[in-house]
Records
---
Amino acid sequence: MNSVGIDVSKGKSMIAVMRPFGEVVCSPFEVPHTSSELSALAKRLKSLDGETRVVMEATGNYHLPIAVALHEAGIYVSVVNAMLVHDYGNNSLRRAKTDKKDAIKLANYGLDRWLTLPEFSPEAEIRMQLKTCCRQYQQYSKVQTMLNNNLISLLDTVFPGVNRLFSSPARADGSEKWVDFVETFWHCECVSGLSQKVFEKKYQKWCHKHGYHFSEAKALEIYTAACGAIGVMPKTETTHLLITQAVSQLRATSTALAELKKEMLRLAESLPEYPVVQKMYGTGPTLGPQLMAEIGDARRFHSKKALVAFAGIDAPPNDSGQIAGNHKAMSKIGSSALRRTLFLIMGVYLQNAPVDEPVYQFMDRKRAEGKPYRVYMMASANKFLRIYYATVKAYLDALETA
């Protein structure tokens, strides 16, 4: 048996091959992540006598090129969580750490866990693309929130409260009425400097140009607010530049988010479990694809408890001797992106209060018991995941047998 430990870094890896009782088959050597080098590595490993298994840590996207290449070459590859290997074999006070030592440690870990090493299986192309789109969507959402707050902060110095004058939802292309409005009427004096009738006509033309509904009552409300507003920053070209640049950045991010949302929905619709996921309360066209992306194929989990543990919302036992731990916190060792998506879905339950939904009934019962907010939210997410696993797995199994 040959245990191959691979310490992965960006663009290259350190490889060590060990056999039982500390026998070194190959001293640590470096391999770049190129097609020719990885092909040569696969041939070298396949030429070894006996069964060969490769062990590497999950390192974001860095490990994927070498893991996929070796898997496609027919070699048993196991990608393990870095936390499982971190403290393995650290019986030295010096705590020396090099790529060579890490590769040897991974190889020895593979020998000790030979029979329980999980085999690596590449994600389907569509699921991988959906997950990447989902992660990008979450990143852009953070940027959009930051830019949105920045623009409102700037507007508080030139036209305070203008964003609260509009309640129209964002369009399919990501544009919002208040953002489009402040691009033209970027200072309170742009409105208050005109007469009421002149502003009404100008506002009506603006609404027609941008495809918004015109209302005389809304025009009067805007004009009244502008006349009562105090612009701390003067109406100058510098101020105009600051506002228009902030609007431009926010609009570009909102457009990118809208395009990513469309692509996520298109990819999700091509997956077999999409219809049944969309029927689940709280998912919808935005959170549904994100949930599917983060979970992947539900059949890869051997039980609903495994899916809950993957999300990191399980509460491991904390008992010792005659002491039983009553206050058990969730582990948080799992997918933080999935926990975020579940938290947003639970927010939908909390906001709409669907009394006929079992998840909300469970949530309401926990609230009645006086449980803290974070406790009943994540406990409800735990129940939601269990329902998701049972529903989706049964649906996918039925499709296979049909």
Note: DSSP finds 16 helices and five strands in the chain.
---
Amino acid sequence: MNQENLKGHENLPASSLEISTIKKIRWRLIPYLLLLYAIAYLDRTNISYAALQMNAELGINPAQFGMVASIFFIGYFFFEVPSNIALHKFGARKWIARILVTWGIVAVCTAFVTHVNHLYILRFLLGAAEAGFFPGIAFYLTFWFPRKHRAAAMATFFLAQILCTCLGAPLSGWIMDSIGAFNLAGWRWMILIEGVPAIILGFVTLFVLSDSPKEVKWLSASEKAWVVAELEEETRNSPAPEMRWWKILANRHVLYLAVTYVFIVMAIYGITFWMPTIIKGFKDHFSNTAIGFLVVIPTLVGAVAMLINGWHSDKTMERKWHVVTVILIGAVGMLLLALTTNTWLSMLWLCLIAIAAYGYIGVWWTIPTSFLTGLSAAVGLAAINSVGNLGGFFGPLLVGALVNASGTQRAGLLFLCGSFVVGALMLAAFRAPKKIG
């Protein structure tokens, strides 16, 4: 950093400059990105609440609902990598705005389906429209946060899932129980009302986000210089040249993490899409609104786990075992849930599962970004996320098939427990390579 860039900050210790810069970036970016991801997650998962009314109205059985929940991830899989390549080419601001508008339009259309086949089509299109959003955000954060600050930033960003569940679950239940104007069922109003914000925020994004620290006016010259220098130094430390995108897809380390992620995501989405139905099946019969509030309890536990795990991982600079530990806690919770019939003990086991479902995620994405940079990061993160999210296809689908065949949720929960264990063991065996790209 030259003297001109440090003008006005000659006596400011580097640590103070670092703290002030990261704090300013975090407050400018994370709340808005958190809001966007909360809307995305809500539009992706609110079908699980709709099922409380929708399945009966449209005559959808458990196996069909498993497909409705799952087929989203097929569209996601096919369009994830192309979307992130486009983001790298056209810039994050424009491409994220495009993603928001298109998925909002598809989400709104879902409110007017009249047959399960319509749901299959629109859920596939929703996945295709949203593809690239999450890995695009993960990639976007690498433009702003040096590696040592990334886990905390990602963990804070993933509070979106917490916000979505804590506010969205009760809201979804309340809308379904309270709104039925114009002869539209409550579940239709819920999907409609929750789909519109994505369209609005898509246009807002064009004015709120910038593609890099160099473009913004809210960082001082010295703050810009510090963060740019840090990020460029990390890039220079990468010994490998930037790879072609198809070589990145074939990289064995990327593929290994992608397959590992399949098992983790399979368990998480397997429980996520079925949780309202599981709670509805408890001996204590709850209204849709009450179910929404009950879902908040394990979610808040997961929020605490996510923040603590991300903070402790940054403090120790250890990544892998922070993920493995919380995933195994979730496996224990899944096993106990399968063996328990008591309502409140079951809620306790759901809290253990939430520790895994939320506690792992901020730290998980620091593992691939520790060896992927540039285009390699854009494509590699998209590949890991898209292949991994096939677990989101198989999890709800297989749980639905097992419930349909056995007439009980126990078989599905035991399957999800095994999926958690396999994912944890695979990650435990992973050895990160040197930098790629």
Note: Residues 1-14 have pLDDT under 50 and may be disordered.
---
Amino acid sequence: MSNIVAIVGRPNVGKSTFFNRLIKRREAIVDAVSGVTRDRHYGKSEWNGREFTVIDTGGYVVGSDDIFEAEIDKQVELAIDEADVIVFMVDVESGVTGMDEDVTNLLRKVNKPVFLAVNKVDNNKRAEDAVEFYSLGLGEYFNIASVNGSGTGDLLDAVVKALPEHVETVEDDLPRFAVVGRPNAGKSSFINALIGEDRYIVTDIAGTTRDAIDTKYNRFGFEFNLVDTAGIRRKSKVKEDLEFYSVMRSIRAIEHCDVCLIVADADRGFDGQVQNIFWLAERNRKGIVILVNKWDLVEKDTNSVRDYEKKIRKELEPFTDVPIVFMSVLNKQRIFKAIETAVEVYNNRTKKIKTSKLNEVLLPIIENNPPPALKGKFVKIKYIMQLPTPQPQFAFFCNLPQYVREPYKRFLENKLREHFDFHGVPISVYMRKK
């Protein structure tokens, strides 16, 4: 599981620019998920061999001083609570502001590494002006220019050095299924129904759950670990921004699982937050099962399931090969179908296809449907193999891999799904030089 680095600060200091620079530094690793509200973003990055998750808490809507103060306190406290390391960004052009001091007061109470980054320092005059930020009382600072990357290397060297080392723990080989979704969708009730006891606190207050807890499940021939973003949460914390909180918790659970069971509320539909969690799981290359809960509360006709499913798959394009289970936790309808489906997806994710079988099936298809010629060059795919990775990844060896475009890679992915059943599992297709 990777560490979390939170970028905090007031509006318009360049947090998002710095975030974009971080997540685009290594294309093979990084991707971003647009935020739930107010332009929040979540992405993966790497520096000096250390992977970490980056959270940009940017884009506050200022209605008045009081509204802003409440908003900034809420956002920064949440980021502080989840983060292992905090980057506090300020702007040399505007100097120290009252909003900067508000954030500083919150950070002084934190027992976590905080790095002060003075942005937009791109000449000697501004470097001299940055001395003003000593007045915040946070000690040494880093002069950076997030637009061109100046100074960011030194900052990141310090950040990754401060990231806590993960303690290696002995884990069993059981599959790990994470139950994720927006607040109050029925995640904990689902687990309670499965294990037959009220291990998790279940209330009607959104955001009751807090920390990721594992439950070993061993019934009806199935054995695996259930990971719920669960735990007791103080009522005083319910005022927090629950959507932001939910996604931050989901990041932790998703990174540490094999299959994500994404619980959606049938009344709310497959809305923006559930979609963001879906794409987090997809970008982390996890198996995915969508569970539409509270289906008993929906007025239905003959085509209700078909129409609802069609609407969800429209939102998932181009990755539509995902199982959708309609259930009611309250009535215990189809909850075991959900588990059976998760086990099938796990088996699909760990499936290994023999090289001889891959070439026997796919090479004739490729010969009849070769990649389109580009600039008069013809691509010839000669050999296919599955890579030895935890999730399905396939290498197609050819003479001109740089000329194979995304539409043809999707064609190859569709053929893999058609012939080898990778239902519910993201597939990676790579073109390699033969």
Note: The longest helix spans residues 65-82.
---
Amino acid sequence: MVILPSAVTGWYLWTRAADQYASYVGFSVRKEEVSSAVELLGGITELSGSSSSDTDILYKFLQSQEIVRRIDAVLDLREIWSKPGPHQDPVFTYHPPSLFTYEPPGTIEDLTEHWLRKVKVYYDEGSGLIDLRVLAFTPDDAHAIAEEIFDESSKKINDLSAIAREDAMRYARDELEEAVERLKEKRRILTEFRNTYRIVDPEASIQGQVGLITTLQNELASALIELDMLQGSASSNDPRIQQARRRIEVIENRIDQERRKLGNGPAAGNDNGEEAYAELLGTYETLAVDRQFAEESYRLALSAYDAAQAEARRQSRYLAAHITPTIAQKSEFPDRPLQLSLVVIFSFLLWATVVLVSYSLKDRR
């Protein structure tokens, strides 16, 4: 129970087991936060530590079928891990599980299971550091797999950063688009109002109307003074008095018509049936307020969009390697003395357990 398993294991390890070379790589997810322009003027920048959530995702990704499929498409992992031949070393080489044959290629599930044997991932949750040990039957193959793992991990982090930026900007972009459409609609309505009534600014028109009435009132005052002076120096049949009275009547009628334009519409005496300036001004002010509100909403939405873009640029993630992929100069695996020692120890423990159980049964008899 001890000597035979130990002998078989030693024979296999030193005669059949192929040498394996290890390549080591270590990295972490870093998040760089670029400060605002005011802070940059003061020379303040910030480099945050690793992002735990992104590191957790990357840790799971390194053990998933997705990365196995990607790297296998580039390097052909089945070929790399079956180089010594499954007939020569069926324990440590890749081969699809079968009772009768070792014919490749096998399924992705089989390859993923072998991946977990050849690629060991060590994750320190406290520091956020990830270290990997990659085994292959040649130093170049182990180094190539380690480099490809680092490249695929960088792509995954870039994808996560792109998704985070898109999530942060999507809502701000939707609000900005709605604000733009609202502003276009309000401006279109105001333009139609101006085209319909042929008035660019009713307030300016009203001011001009008030100025015209003021001028007419001044003219009326002058005409009344002139009439008083004529009545004091001329007879009642003087044509100048009749002309002055006619002039006063015309001015009063014009003042009355101009005042009606500032009234409440056709009912107030607008003979042309046009809307009064007061009503036009009320409609214009309503449309102007709607346009101003749309413009303010647009400015706020644009500011929020710019802030979302700046925030997305500030929170950029990247993969920082503290150990670049190494190239082995000698074979370290399989660790033959260690594995033989484990087989001897477990065989001895099993034998000791069986002996103790057998003596216990004999003592009961």
Note: The two ends are 25 Å apart (CA to CA).
